[in-house]
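TL;DR need structure tokens for one chain.
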Amino acid sequence: MKENRIEQYASLLIRRDQLKKEAEIMEDEYYREFGDEFYNVYEVKISCIELKKKIHYCQAARNHGEKIDVEMMDAVLKEEMRDYYTQLKNLFANVQGVKKMKVSPEHVVLAVKKKYRELAKMIHPDLHPFTQEDETLMDLWNRAVKAYHMNDENGLDEIGILVRHRLQELGYEEESVVVIEDLEEKIRSVNAEIEEIMNTDPYQYKMLFEREDLVEEKHLELKKELDSYLHYQEELEGILHTFISDGEVTVEWKMD
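>> reply
TL;DR here they are.
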């Protein structure tokens, strides 16, 4: 009975890892499909934030009867906006990186899944305490996880050879006896992880890509959002221009 529960636990761990991998794939696909639009929206949104900060700066100067120092304003805002533009730069890099990624053929994905499962049963740290106690095995396991997520079939083959060699050096059989404390609690915990992964983004993107109408709806949603921000940007530029040109205008400004 206990052996069956251990087998169930092992299967749950492997399923959890598979779902995590699928979620990563869905997230990549999401940004491959919508990444450029996300970037465009965020770029204009940042512009609006910066314009609002400039208006606030100008209004504060006007309220105190001070001359608006445009150069000083730009210097102050450059520092305040640094994190926003860093995020924009990172978003651009992520979108471009996803576009360059190669999609692995299905037969490779299936082969990788099988080889990862074999390695997991041999040295998964949650199943085999000796893995955590041995630096070499732990390093091999981390490499296996990385190769699995990258669909690196050859890498998993090489790691499998090294794992078997290390197990022999340590005197363990490939199918070592598994001793797991609090097994039932661990099973409940992994089941909870699986449920959480399946019910949150990015795994939920999977359902989005199963329907073309939902994909098109998302494109339209992002277009509307971009148009809204572009319109808002024009309004803010008009208000700022009034300040800079030293015209008389009263503005009620609130920071979102």
